[in-house]
Amino acid sequence: MKRNVLLLNADWAPLNFVSSMRALNLLFKGRAEVITIGEAPSAWDDIYTTPATAYRVPATVRLLERVTRKHSTPRFRKRVLFNRDNWQCQYCGINLDYKTITIDHVHPRSKGGDWLDAEIPTTIFGTFPVAETLMSLK
Predict the structure, then answer these.
(1) How far apart, in whole angstroms, are the C-alpha atoms of residue 105 and residue 131?
(2) What is the residue extent of each domain of the chain?
(3) 3-state DSSP of 72-107
(4) What predicted TM-score, i.e. pTM, was given to this entire model?
(5) What is the Cβ-side half-sphere exposure of residue 6, based on CA atoms within 13 angstroms?
(6) Long-range CB contacts for residues 73-80, cutoff 8 Å, separation at least 24
(7) Are strands 4-8 and 60-63 parallel, antiparallel or unpaired?
(8) Which residues neighbour 88 within 8 Å (Cβ) at sequence distance 6 or greater?
(9) Helix or strand or coil: residue 137?
């Protein structure tokens, strides 16, 4: 009985998958409803039984009140940046490996630069003066 249940927000936007026990708790507390498909409720074949009643595990439930979710910006990861640039130096096009690759702030952080992806190309180790020269030519 390890079925996951799709949890929808009140505006029908998908929120998460929750355990079947969590879904049943939301139903019993009156915070959610089972989604019906046509005439039949959306439910798994699994059944939770109590001494008094048997309950079918729902497959999809919808919250009755809308939940606002706080969206945060993803954390900066060097490996994602390297994959974006195809593991190549952005100044000379040489293929790099993890030992020789580094990042270069086009606008140094000490001079107000940021961790934006557009401002951080991947470079071969030791090419920082090259980047400064290229920036001075602009």
Answers:
(1) 9
(2) 4-63, 78-137
(3) CCCCCCHHHHHHHCCCECCCCCCECCCCCEEECCCC
(4) 0.51
(5) 11
(6) 76/115, 78/103
(7) parallel
(8) 94, 95, 96, 122
(9) helix
Structure tokens at 93: 């096009």
The β-bridge relationship of strands 60-63 and 14-19 is unpaired
Find where tokens 């998908």 sit: 14
Structural tokens at position 11: 């505006």
Identity of the amino acid at 79:
R
The token pair that represents 89 in the structure block: 């130096």
Best mean pLDDT range from 45-54, 78-87, 92-101 = 45-54
> Helix, strand or coil for residue 34?
strand
The residue written with tokens 């708790």 in the block is 25
Q: Give the pLDDT mean for 43-60.
A: 87
